[in-house]
Amino acid sequence: MKTLYIDVDYSFTSQRFIQIAGLHIHKVSPNIFVFNPKTFFEQTQMIENLETYLSRSVALIIVDSITTLYRLESSTLEERFALNRALNRQLAYLAELAKKHGLAVILTSQVHSLLNYAEVEPIAKRALFHWCGTIIKLMNLKYSFKEAVVERLNFKEVFNLKCKLKLTKEGLIDVDENK
Questions:
Q1: Which of 49, 72, 103, 178, by CA, is between 20 and 30 Å from 39?
Q2: CATH fold of 2-132
């Protein structure tokens, strides 16, 4: 199966990919197509033209991070409304592609601190919460540990659904706390 990866943050490095893919690199690499938009307008164009890259073998679309270029756009209040419409249109288009073609779509988002600095929330939270059916919050713990908390599953709120993960050179692995 193939993956379309829109690397907005330029974080998809060949070194990290080789590390994660390991011995399977020659089997896996022909199945990943990486796109790198430089502006929010380019990101919009890429997302709106994704269907031209779809085939039966494409199973996953990743946008990492959907809000990076949105956040970087300097704008007046009037321009901000246009940016919000464009971001909502991108999210709607991705939701439609997922539904129409039976694809998985994974979006990451930049976050910002709330006034109390203890909590963070995604940039453009309302748009993301409107269009995304499953929302997982990844929180840093000590050392290389993370906690994944499922906040919503298939548009339904869930409570106390979480797991502990460890970031290794092969990627995230589940940490069984019962061992």
A1: 103
A2: Rossmann fold (3.40.50)
